[in-house]
Specification:
The structure holds two protein chains of two kinds. By secondary structure, chain A is mostly helical. In chain A, 76% of the residues lie in helices and 0% in strands. The relative contact order of chain A is 0.14. The two termini of chain B are 40 Å apart. In chain B, 38% of the residues are buried. The chains are: A mainly alpha, B mainly alpha. At the A-B interface, helix 1, helix 4, helix 5, helix 6 and helix 7 of A face helix 1, helix 2, helix 7, helix 8 and helix 9 of B. Chain B: Pfam families: BPD_transp_1.
């Protein structure tokens, strides 16, 4: 059905699609231009959207000095730690709520459901005082733990486990396999796609979260890349040069963009699941 | 497997469940349920961050005083013409709800919801400080107003453009999938990358927007510090950033509309824009509601764009609720007042979450 109207539709859509991409292209292009040129003009070639004159110095400088590499590593540690933590508590609890019978099950589900309504912004002050009392600020676990309490992952896993046919576990039960073994040997292997979706949802959240790291990590050594980028963008022009700040922005975006391009289907699923349920 | 009898394998169903639920319920209780109630408790105290940090007894129970200090004032009055524009708009909403229900365009539930919202707006908009009176906190309600304005500009912007794009791209071809990827890409960036890009896009000296303005013979404006443009300067990047989710949700909704409907419509000469209006829109009502409620929840919590791009300025024009909470707590150290505002935020988000839950359940 590749008619002429279809051809025109694609052409017409290409224009807004290109415009949508312009801000990102502009960031990448500026990151590859020399700072002394950028100080004079940002529109050297094609309004600055093509990096001529070209240089890779901004990236070299980024890795030679400055804290960007360390912030990047912090983000990696926090994002991976949070992802593993959320997967661990969500798969176990999701399985229990979906497949097992036990007293007070319904009230527990309702209690978790209510938790979906509480936004991060409504609890960040008491969390701050709690973590301050414990002396936990400026640490990886302070950045990781609060997200593990958000029930969204439990509901994602619960819905997935509910959809698995009963006979699979009944066969195993007849052979005397324990519930924990069913969870580990039967259910978890089946749950890989759902775990993948949840992992990506959590990783993206961890990588991009701004408010809680801003409150909890006051020492620059514990900044995530998202927070570090915020701290250098207020005075970029004077201190580090526009090109270098843009290079930091590119480095900060690289992992999530690569993740998106490789696992596009899961990312879209994750963001719609995360978006439509909390 | 049954032969290897470890103590773990002898657990009953309920014991297994308890063991599996424990890690989550423990973190949930410690880091969400307890902080939530502690937040309410803090909001009932005169609680200075620094003083209490040094001396835990330096807080004082004050009951609802923080709420009064934040939300009320002296000599507050109500009248039906305090804000004529807004209140007429609310009355129009009330009439609209009645008409739509009478002509059976909308069901009873949505009609009551719309009417209640309109009535609430009419009442709330009528509250004002009398001639002798004044608000205890002059910044709170304007901040809430800015947040609502931000939501009111962003949500329709995202919804309408995402809907049109999704309808245009609802075909499983290579080109369409590439185009969808391009529109979705900005969604995965962090708020600080988004603000970094757009701060420089809008810069009057170095920005792409200024460069284009100059090229076309105009004189560049300072988007971020000009009262007329500052709100637009944080709304535009937000639309750019969050179009993707809405678009994907619409595409999923469009997949559920039967092809037969369009073929039947084509027989009645309903194609293109006509088909969109008479077939697509009515069948997408639920998805549209979901997307709108979702966006309201999401954008009411705006913080980064305002904090990093305009610092709430100029003249508090872009000061938003979460930023005010953040500043009250961590710059002014007034944890009690900040927590009262956080409870207010929770009530609003909670109300919309309930709506979202009810709409989401309709399908099943």
């Amino acid at each position: 059905m590749l008619s002429r109207s279809y051809f025109w539709l694609v052409t017409a859509l290409s224009i807004p699609a290109f415009l949508w991409l312009v801000p990102t292209i502009w960031m990448v292009s500026l990151s590859f231009q020399p700072n002394d040129v950028l100080a004079r003009t940002t529109s050297s070639t094609a309004l600055g959207l093509v990096p001529i004159p070209f240089t890779a110095d901004n990236y070299a400088a980024l890795f030679a000095f400055g804290q960007t590499p360390m912030w990047f590593l912090n983000s990696v540690v926090v994002a991976l730690g949070m992802t593993l933590g959320v997967l661990a508590v969500s798969t176990t609890a999701g399985f229990a709520l979906a497949r097992l019978n036990f007293p007070f099950k319904a009230p527990i589900v309702v209690l978790c459901l209510i938790g979906l309504m509480v936004p991060e912004q409504a609890v960040f002050i008491p969390l701050y005082t709690m973590f301050a009392d414990l002396g936990w600020h400026n640490s990886y676990h302070a950045l990781i733990l609060p997200r593990m309490a958000v029930p969204i992952g439990v509901f994602l896993m619960m819905q997935f486990f509910k959809a698995i046919p009963k006979d699979i576990e009944e066969a195993a039960r007849l052979e005397g396999v324990s519930w924990l073994q069913i969870f580990w040997h039967v259910m978890l292997p089946l749950a890989r796609p759902a775990m993948m979706t949840l992992a990506i949802l959590t990783f993206l959240y961890a990588w991009n979260d701004y408010l809680w790291p801003l409150v909890s990590a006051q020492q620059r050594d514990y900044f995530t890349i998202t927070l570090g980028l915020a701290s250098i963008q207020s005075n970029f022009a004077q201190s580090e040069g526009l090109g270098r700040v843009m290079a930091s922005g590119v480095i900060a975006s690289l992992p999530v963009v690569i993740l998106f391009l490789i696992f596009q289907r899961y990312v879209v699923q994750a963001m719609t699941a995360g978006g439509s349920k909390g | 497997m049954a032969s290897k009898r470890s103590p773990l394998s002898r657990l009953s169903q309920a014991q297994s469940a308890a063991l599996l639920l424990l890690p989550f319920l423990a973190t949930y209780a410690l880091f969400l349920v307890y902080p939530f109630f502690r937040g309410v408790w803090i909001s009932l105290h005169d609680w200075n961050l620094l003083e209490v940090a040094f001396n835990p007894d330096a807080k004082e129970f004050v009951g609802a005083r923080n709420y009064v200090r934040v939300m009320w004032g002296r000599g507050i009055e109500w009248s039906a013409w305090a804000r004529p524009g807004l209140q007429l708009f609310a009355l129009a909403g009330l009439v609209l709800a009645a008409i739509l229900h009478a002509t059976r365009r909308i069901g009873r539930g949505p009609a009551i919801g719309l009417a209640a919202a309109a009535l609430l707006l009419f009442v709330v908009a009528g509250i004002h400080a009398g001639e002798e009176g004044r608000w205890y906190d002059r910044r709170f309600w304007p901040t809430v107003g800015n947040t609502i304005l931000f939501v009111a500009l962003t949500v329709p912007g995202v919804t309408i453009s995402a809907l049109v794009l999704a309808a245009a791209m609802n075909r499983e071809t290579r080109a369409m999938s590439v185009l969808r990827t391009l529109f979705f890409l900005s969604q995965v960036l962090s708020v600080t990358v988004v603000t970094l890009i757009w701060q420089i896009m809008f810069s009057p000296r170095q920005g792409l927007v200024a460069n284009i303005t100059e090229l076309t013979g105009g004189s560049p404006v300072n988007w971020l510090t000009d009262e007329r443009f500052a709100m637009a300067a944080i709304v535009i990047p937000t639309i750019w950033w969050s179009l993707g989710i809405a678009m994907i949700l619409f595409l999923a909704g469009l997949q559920d509309i039967s092809r037969d409907l369009y073929e039947a419509g084509a027989l009645d000469h309903a194609t293109g824009a006509k088909a969109f209006w008479y077939i697509t829109l009515p069948n997408l009502k639920r998805t549209i509601t979901v997307v709108i409620v979702l966006q309201i929840i999401l954008h009411f919590q705006v913080f980064g764009q305002s904090h990093l791009m305009t610092q709430g300025g100029p003249n508090d024009e872009t000061q938003v609720l979460v930023r005010y909470i953040y500043q009250t707590a961590f710059r002014d150290s007034e944890l009690g007042r900040a927590s009262a505002m956080a409870v207010f935020l929770f009530l609003i988000i909670g109300a919309f979450s309930v709506v979202q839950f009810l709409v989401g359940r309709e399908k099943d």
